[in-house]
Design a protein that fits this description.
Elements lengths: L3 E3 L5 E3 L2 H14 L6 H11 L1
C-alpha cells in the first residue's frame, strides 16, 4: 500500500523517505552538527 502526504496547500503526494532523510540532515546542520548515515538510518527506522 502506497502512503500519501497531504501538503499544507491541500495537495496530495506520495510519501518520500528521501525528503525525510534530507530534512534530518538539514536539521543537524542547522545546529552546527553532522549526522552520519548510521544516525540518519536509525532515525528513519523510527519514522518508517
Amino acid at each position: 500500500m502506497e502512503l500519501f502526504i497531504i501538503k499544507r496547500d491541500g495537495k496530495k503526494e506520495p510519501f518520500s523517505i528521501e525528503k525525510i532523510r534530507n530534512a534530518i540532515s538539514k536539521a543537524f546542520l542547522s545546529v552546527g552538527s553532522f549526522a552520519t548515515q548510521d544516525v540518519i538510518s536509525n532515525i528513519l527506522c523510527r519514522v518508517n
